[in-house]
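To whoever picks this up:

The nightly regression suite flagged Transferrin receptor protein 1 as changed. Nothing in the input moved, so I suspect the structure step. Input below, exactly as stored in the fixture:
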Amino acid sequence: MDHARAAISNLFGGEPMSYTRFSIARQTDGDNSHVEMKLAADDEEGGEIGRPEHLHANMPPPWRRGKNRCFLVIAAVLLLLIGFLIGYLSYSGRMQKASRCLDGSGKCEMTPTTSYLVDDDETEEEEVPGPPVLYWPELRTLLSDKLSARRLEDNLRQRASKSSFEAGQSEDEGIASYIHDQFTSFLLDEVWNDEHYIKLQVKGSSNNKVSILENGEEEELESPDAYVAYSKSGSVVGKPVHVNYGLKADFQKLQKQGVSLNETIIIFRAGKITLAEKVANAEEAGAVGALMYLDPSDYKMTDALAPFGHAHLGTGDPFTPGFPSFNHTQFPPVESSGLPHIAVQTISSKAVGKLFRRMDGENCLLEWNSGVLGCKVMLSSTSNMTVKLSVNNVMVDRKILNIFGAIKGFEEPDRYVVIGAQRDSWGPGAAKAGVGTAILLELAYVISDMVKHDGYKPRRSIIFASWSAGEYGAVGATEWLEGYSATLHAKAFTYINLDAAVLGFNHMKISASPLLYTLLERTMKGVKDPTKDSGSLYDRVGSDWVKTVVPLGLDNAAFPFLAYSGIPVVSFGFCNKEEEYSFLGTTEDTVENLKRTEKLYALMRAAAEVAGQIALRLTHDHELFLDFERYGEELLAFQEKFLPYYRDVKALGLTLNWLFFARGDFQRATDALRRDIANSDRENRVVRRALNDRIMKVEYDFLSPYLSPKDTPFRHIFFGKGSHTLQSLLENLQLLRTSRDSVNVNMLKEQLALVTWTIKGAANALVGDIWDTDNEF
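Regenerated output under the current build:
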């Protein structure tokens, strides 16, 4: 419009204007508001080319004056039209952009540049020619509108007609084929499967058996259909001792009372920790066998049920530790150190009650609050009663299939978020595997439909994964990670786990990497709570929800992604606050029993919306929505826990200073990365990708590089397993106060070194280029 006004002003006596031939161009000298147009006639009249000519400098003949005046009028009209079009398009563009940003509150979400992941961040897309851009509020609404509780119900119904989906068996392969066909029908960009050849331990030709031996007679206590995979096979005999949940603290309480646990058969109830961890604690205490039951105080209506389980203290195929099971031939004859060497079986609480009635020792501790009447800790010293445990499990070779479908990113297809769910189950597995599989299929359908029909163009890829052999310890997921361990950490930036997403209705259980806390919190604020007339899921968990985050268990498929591969994860689910879902891992985990959950399909839809929003936000924004500064807070929290032991460590000739300096280096590295993001050109894809890659490395760099992934697969210093972890270091420091003589000083020194240099290495990697690192501790 300014150009148009200038043209009209010059025509009617304004400031003189110089002209160029055929085009409008800014002058290189003088007032840049003027334009120059040189006509051919001016050149012919001897005017100096490139020199401004005033209108009265050379008076042309009258007939030429009329011609020039006509030409000038036409030029002015053209300029006026051009100015009007420019002004109109600019105005309409602003209005269109504003209308897209309206989201009830009138705010437009934009990816931050001045402060990373600030509270009021908004997302603004690049102004590029082509189809209309979907802004985040539109995208979020589109996802919510498309999700269907009816389709989720139809998907879950696939589990209703079968009693088992055991890994590698015909039912498992059948549903794998169904998922593959569904992915294909959704027109995903790629659909494929991975075959893995693994060793599984399954029930033998006859059921395992638990018996009571007394006065030379054997009485069968129970012979359940369920079994525990990877138990030691054979028969063992020992005196029964009840150890509550089988926690280390429970064992220590009995041992402090002088109770001998050598050559005993330990009885513990399900819950608190995984079965594999309970078995490991029992073996460490000297037991020869272990029995687990579902206590009525924790699991309602399960008196006659014995759950399935596995006793491998690890994930993946325990007979190919650290290797992907792509075939049978290329593996050394080794086995996982996490395999137990004691017999393990599950029994019903009804059978446990019968056993307690035959025991004549002390009653269970009051604080154990067992739901089994007549609970006894152990036998009297004069009793000759023992328990015999016979395990007939056998090893088999099985082929399993992982099914994948991918929506490729339009800008960075080699960077992807993975959404996964376990497919197999020992029983019907409605809650254990059915819910997650149903949500997986719904998200694949909806997001693919958004891409194909609504113009959504994700910057990065989304992979949908259906795992097999999850019941045996995330075998399918772990074998895939092992097969691509050299590259996955540099390409997959988040794993979203859908397993057991609905086990109740009045509470939420969350496990996640700190990198995803901020995104998860904002997502919950934007998803309506389906059990209430108003309010969001965030209102359900409360502002202090981070304090209630639950550590990932070994039987959670997200665990190896985080602790083995260094990929951020989130795993969440609806549950009942006061009690566990009773039928998980049993033959009664049916669709009919699950449907007793209040508003089941609405909760499934809400879970799908949470997972879908996380995936879309991670593939939509310019910068990866990973809050790398959270780990600075986590390190500071550990430093505060270590600080009280500063003098105790110094008395050993050691110091915590270097560890504290490394934490400071990491904090400075996160500050530097935040500044780099704030000062970067968001439109420069090369710069943006480099910054995102630095963010992606944060999780991976907390895997200790000083340990062998074969011998110590879970190397993460926050969430791994072993003496290299921050938690193990803290426990060793605590021993300096409670049992100083038991502290191995050399081990403590090694722990300090491993943790310090892992944190320092993470700081150096986060900074980026090596010339920007600061090695002055």
